[in-house]
Amino acid sequence: MALDDIELLIVEPCSTKEHVFMRASKDETNFVYMYEDILKKLNVQFPFLNFECEMLSLMNVFPVQLYPNSWAFLHSFQILCKSLKIELTINKFMYFY
Fold first, then answer.
1. Residue partners of 33: CB distance under 8 A and separation at least 6
2. Smallest Cα–Cα separation from 55: which of 32, 88, 84, 19?
3. Hey, which bits of the chain come out as E strands?
4. Integer Cα distance of 34 and 83 in angstroms
5. Contact present, 24 and 31 (Cβ < 8 Å)
6. How far is CA 2 from CA 18, 23, 25, 27, in A?
7. Which residue of 26, 34, 38, 48 shows the fewest CB atoms closer than 10 Å?
């Protein structure tokens, strides 16, 4: 997700009538429930970097489906690429993974 697409992201609390297992109806846009504590513990912040969005799309998972070690590995790879001044790409990540 690019910074230009930030208006596509809506963060709002759940109502008391909503449950984690609920799906969007046909006239609603897609949504994902996330517990605030999980995001805080994993140090996940919105908006995600393009690299993180591409990885989530490639793996076909939601952010909450990744284990903390997986997030740590993604972040450490980003830090490594930044410190070595290497372009951060999915192909490079998958090669090292």
1. 14, 18, 20, 22
2. 88
3. none
4. 31
5. yes
6. 29, 26, 27, 26
7. 26
- If residue 54 lies in a helix (H) or strand (E), which one and from where to where? helix 50-59
Cα dihedral 36→59→55→64 (10° resolution)? 10
pTM of the model: 0.53
Q: What gap in Å lies between CA 20 and CA 38, rounded to an integer?
A: 14
- List pLDDT tens digits, range 14-60: 777 776 666 677 777 766 666 677 777 777 666 778 888 888 888 88
